[in-house]
Amino acid sequence: MTKKTLLLVIVGLALGAALAFGIRAWCPPAAAQQAEGIAAQRSVSPAAQREVPGSREEVLLSYAPLVKDVAPAVVNVYSARRAQQRASTFFDQFFGRMNRPPRVEQSLGSGVIVGADGLIVTNNHVVEGAEQILVSLSDRREFSAEIVFTDPQMDLALLRVDTGGEALPTVDLGDSDSVEVGDIVVAIGNPFGVGQTVTNGIVSAVARAGVGISDYQFFLQTDAAINPGNSGGALIGLDGTLVGVNTAIYSRSGGSNGIGFAIPVNSVRQFLAGAASGRVMRPWFGAEAQTVTREIASSMGLDRPSGALIRSVSESGPAADAGLRSGDIVTAVNGEAVGDPAMLRYLTGSQPLGSELTLTYLRGGERRQTTIELIEPPETPKRNETLLSGEHILTGVQVANLSPRLASELGSGVPESGVIVTGITRGAPAARVNFVRTGDIIDSVNGETVETVRELETVMGSASAEAEIVFTRGGQQAACYFRAPNFFRCRS
Q1: Is residue 251 in a domain?
Q2: 231 annotated as belonging to a binding site for a ligand
Q3: What's the pLDDT at 174?
Q4: Which of 107, 147, 204, 273 could form a disulfide with 221, with the two C-beta atoms 3.0–4.6 Å apart?
């Protein structure tokens, strides 16, 4: 190395040291301390820095306090039932019918403790037909459970476990009528049987109907992750109260797609009241409504297709007593807007018997108000359930008289008068030709209107050789013509 090169290296080192000293001397002490603090923070465990909120008021930072309070009241439900296996028709050709041992089907779900004495609410489909039910608490203790009461139409079941007098933790029932779209909710359940799991989301919709679960029931929709096994679990509001019972999801894959449905807690409260009395009695509105279409709205001078158009009113029913008529459009119940018939059914059907509601409605463009009292639907006429006999196409078909009470039990869309098919005996003539089905309404036989079971029996007694039967199925009317011994033709 030459003297010139060595000199350049020494000069460079000296300039670098001077520059470093100058930068350190220029940098403010506060900034240096801040940088050292950030580095120190990064070296500390995040768990040591995080402080868990100690109250529900601080739940904006964590759901932990809420979950600690509520989770012990949510249980896992396991059920088992025996199902007869179908014999193979292929092997039957060679070996005849073989008696196969029954197959054990298992189901899993969740439940919510609503009574400290061991009462648990879950979905009916979780325990329907079960021969053995096992309930697992959050502390892993297990108890056998028995079914106390069920309502398949609401898809709810009430179970009881015997804890030997020990009081179990419960969850308080909230008010689903006060739930609004956008409210934060927490779902607790047992998805896929992995154990108690907590997810959160928001209420996506209220009074959701027509989702293929129940013709009667209305649901809260949420995007909180709900999966198989969550059925019967709790949907909790941020105040720690139960706002719904998770019951179903909309999914093409079998997992959560952010569209879950929960039975509103006010319906659960109605179910529990029915369990206490031995039967669920839904309030009777006494009128059928239909959607206000754009064409109807335009013809009536409305600025939007909204509300529930009264299509028919039952004589001496609550709606008739309140002065409602066919053609009226109900726009609000107790000040809450009614956008469609489903919302009207929800706001009236979720109220206890004896409730008085204020209805706002339009008649001839004029806005009016009236008060309606929800009462128990009468069973007039008596249902007189009868298995038809004789030599005619309806032999072996079971029918009953419709009434407001029976229509309420069967669900929305069922008329409150007429004759309804309630069952068909296997091997009956109508079953062999796939004629009537359970739920069909028999309207007339050979041109004679049928309004009661007795009238149907009389007219069928003289229609053994041939009969034209007009019936209604799913709101659509059809007719079938029969002529002995085997001529059969239907038209819609």
Answers
A1: yes
A2: yes
A3: 95
A4: 204
CA distances (Å), origin 110, targets 135, 184, 244, 347, 395: 9, 21, 13, 28, 44
Least confident of 131-145, 316-330, 332-346, 356-370: 332-346
CATH of the domain at 481: 2.30.42.10
Q: What is the pLDDT of residues 273-288, one digit of tens each?
A: 889 988 777 889 999 8
- Indicate which residue of 231, 256, 267, 412 is catalytic: 231
Residue of 151, 155, 223, 340 marked active site:
155
Q: Rounded CA gap, 184 and 56, in Å?
A: 14
Pick 209 or 291 by higher pLDDT.
Answer: 291
* pLDDT band per the 50, 70, 90 thresholds, residue 394: very high
Domain presence at residue 44: no
Is residue 185's pLDDT more than 80?
A: yes
Which residue, of 126, 161, 196, is where some domain finishes? Answer: 161
Residue where the block lists tokens 């300039």: 15
155 assigned binding-site residue = yes
The span from the CA of 151 to the CA of 409, in Å, is 10
Burial class (CB in 10 A: 0-12, 13-18, 19+), 347: buried
247 & 211 share domain: yes
pLDDT of residue 309: 96
Which one from 79, 107, 110, 125 is the annotated catalytic residue?
125
CATH of the domain at 241: 2.40.10.10
pLDDT, tens digit, for every residue of 450-466?
999 999 999 998 887 78
% residues pLDDT > 90 (the chain): 49
pLDDT at 18: 46
What is the average per-residue pLDDT within 440-447? 94
**Phi-psi label, residue 254: left if phi above 0, alpha if psi -120 to 50, beta otherwise:** left
Q: Of 226, 242, 277, which residue is a domain's last? A: 277
- Residue 147, classified by CB atoms within 10 Å of its CB into exposed (0-12), middle (13-18) or buried (19+), is middle
Residues 422, 440, single domain; the answer is yes
State yes or no: 230 annotated in a binding site: yes
On whether both 151 and 108 belong to a single domain, the answer is yes
How many structural domains comprise the chain?
4
Token couple for 279: 């039967």
273 and 253, same domain (yes or no): yes
Residue 155 bears catalytic tag:
yes
- Residue 167 included in any domain: no
pTM of the model: 0.69
Confidence class for position 32, pLDDT limits 50, 70, 90: very low
Do 264 and 300 lie in one domain? The reply is no
**Which domain range does residue 121 map to?**
72-161
Question: Is residue 392 among the annotated active site residues?
Answer: no
Q: Using CA atoms, how far apart are residues 103 and 149, in angstroms rounded to an integer?
A: 26
